[in-house]
Amino acid sequence: MIVLKTSRELSIMRKAGKISQTALRLAGEAVQPGISTWELDKIVHNYITKMGATPSFLHYQGFPGSACISVNEVVIHGIPKKETILKQGDIVSIDVGACYQGFHGDNAWTFPCGEVSQEAQALLDATEQSLYEGIRQARPGNRLGDIGHAVQAYAEARNYSVVREFVGHGVGAKLHEDPSVPNYGTPGRGVRLQAGMVIAIEPMINYGRKEVEVSKDGWTIVTKDRSLAAHFEHTVAITPDGPVILTLLD
Ligand code: MG
Q1: Are 134 and 202 in contact (CB under 8 A)?
Q2: 217, 205 in Cβ contact below 8 A?
Q3: Fewer CB near the terminus (10 Å): N or C of the chain?
Q4: Please, what is the Cα angle at 180 between 179 and 181, to 5 degrees?
Q5: Distance 232 CA to ligand 1 centre (A)
Q6: Is 143 helix (H, G, I), strand (E, B) or coil?
Q7: Ligand 1 mean position to 177 CA, how many Å?
Q8: What residues does each domain of the chain span?
């Protein structure tokens, strides 16, 4: 069931989104060779709790961190660890959610650690742009397939591949609500978008093949061919005037 949000709820969600975005930026600014993903997780945790919010991911289905931190061939759901130390040339995906006054914000970004290869930087740039291509389609009257197709077409035109097993989602009083928001699709197909819907659009784009697998820890999702993966996400409200990104600062 898709829950539409009132304007009062959207204003709370904007605050949750800002907290999520600031926590993500603070962690991103700390990405450098020698720091552990555990330390990045602490930055996220400390900021969110200082703001009177709660980290959406902590203990979600048993997840042990406040952020998912996924390095190189890890696509999503990487567990922050003291022994995972970043190196020059890594790409580091940080996924952060915050719950404020009962509503969630959810966003992710992939940061370069120091100088990265041209190939890695091109993947980051393309995945970021594929997110904006998807967001542009998030307007009343369009359908979910328009969003997925926009992301997929942009990524595949550059010979990257789109992860199928994990998708975006509705966001609200629950972190994951209906509808599912795939990063692939057919224009004009799927659920019709309407004002009041809030969705997380989150392309997961692989440098190599699209297949992924779950690691032994039961959480960490890696590319099957161990090629690099990038992940960018915003929480977006669909309004009569078009898409409004809630996970942005003023
Ligand atoms: Mg999400």
Answers
A1: no
A2: no
A3: C
A4: 110
A5: 10
A6: strand
A7: 10
A8: 7-244
Tens digits of residue pLDDT in 205-247: 999 999 999 999 999 999 999 999 999 999 999 999 999 999 9
- What pLDDT, in 10s, does the model give residues 150-191? 999 999 999 999 999 999 999 999 999 999 999 999 999 999
Distance 9 CA to ligand 1 centre (A): 19
Peptide bond into 140 cis (omega under 30): no
Distance between Cα 202 and ligand 1 center (Å):
6
Q: From the CA of 233, how far away is ligand 1's center (Å)?
A: 7
Exposed, middle or buried: residue 51 (CB in 10 Å: 0-12, 13-18, 19+)? middle
> What angle do helix axes 144-157 and 118-136 make, rounded to 10 degrees?
160
Ligand 1 geometric centre to CA of 169 (Å) = 6
Which residue, among 194, 196, 203, has the nearest Cα to 142 in the 3D structure? 194
Ligand 1 centroid–CA 221 distance in Å is 14
Ligand 1 midpoint to CA 200 (Å): 6
The CATH topology of domain 7-244 is Creatine Amidinohydrolase (3.90.230)
CA of 67 to the centre of ligand 1 (A): 11
CA quadruple 81, 68, 130, 250: dihedral, nearest 10: -110
The CA-to-CA distance between both ends of the chain, in Å, stands at: 31
Q: Is the pTM of this model over 0.90?
A: yes
